[in-house]
Amino acid sequence: MREKYHGRLAELFGKPQYQAQTALFLANVVYNSAKFIIETSEPPDLPAAAIDGIPKEDHYVVRAGLISCPIIVTDEKDLRDSINESQGVLGLKAVTPAEALELAKDT
Q1: How confident is the model over 34-51, as pLDDT tens digits?
Q2: Rounded distance between C-alpha atoms, residue 76 and residue 55, angstroms
Q3: Is the pLDDT of residue 59 over 80?
Q4: Are 71 and 95 in contact (CB under 8 A)?
Q5: Please, which residues have CB within 8 angstroms of residue 9's CB and are 6 or more apart in sequence?
Q6: DSSP for 5-74, written as a single string
Q7: Contact 76/57 with Cβ under 8 angstroms?
Q8: Is the pLDDT of residue 89 over 60?
Q9: Cβ distance 44 to 66 under 8 Å?
Q10: Which residues of 70-85 are buried (b: 16+ CB within 10 A; e: fewer)?
Q11: Which residues pair with 94 in a beta bridge?
């Protein structure tokens, strides 16, 4: 998952209009040691009620989220909508990168 995020961040750094937001995200979220915890346990399976709504290629992200119930940050509308629609089952919330930056500023 780390490689996917770094690949996407590198892609965003290549676009001048996203460089400032990407740098803020890295500073406030990725490299903020107060928000860094390594989880080594096997993630739980997705609840049956949520499987159909979440894109198969994103199951691993949501399963990882079930361990610590974080806020999932994604610019993929389908994934974000599926997580938020299943919030009662998953106990997770999904936000856009812009919303995440605002949340990071508050902590």
Answers
A1: 666 666 778 888 888 888
A2: 10
A3: yes
A4: yes
A5: 22, 25, 26, 30
A6: HHHHHHHHHTSGGGHHHHHHHIIIIIT-GGG-----SPPPPPPHHHHTTS-GGGHHHHHHHHHH--EEE-
A7: no
A8: yes
A9: yes
A10: eebbbebeebbebbee
A11: 72
